[in-house]
Write a structure and sequence with these properties.
With 73 residues, this protein is mainly beta. The chain is built from one helix and seven strands, in the order βαββββββ.
Length: 73
């Protein structure tokens, strides 16, 4: 059984790598999961755009959320 490793994304480089690898994400806001499994399709210094499916986009504020990339071993 594959174990998942959560890696916190903090820097632009972290977000760029997660986007290039199409890494699934878990996003927390106020200690609650608000998104799980979507991939980054775009980001800037204020916003991260995740896509979980066709037409299913989420715009999340970098300042108010914690982002974790999910790497499978």
């Amino acid at each position: 059984m594959a174990k998942a490793h959560n890696r916190r994304l903090l820097t632009d480089q972290d977000f760029e790598e997660a986007m290039e690898l199409q890494m699934g994400l878990r996003v927390f806001k106020d200690n609650y999961i608000v998104e799980s499994g979507g991939i980054i399709i775009q980001f800037n210094e204020k916003t991260v755009v995740l896509q979980a499916g066709i037409g299913d986009l989420s715009y999340l504020a970098r300042e108010s959320c914690e982002f974790f990339g999910i790497k499978k071993h």
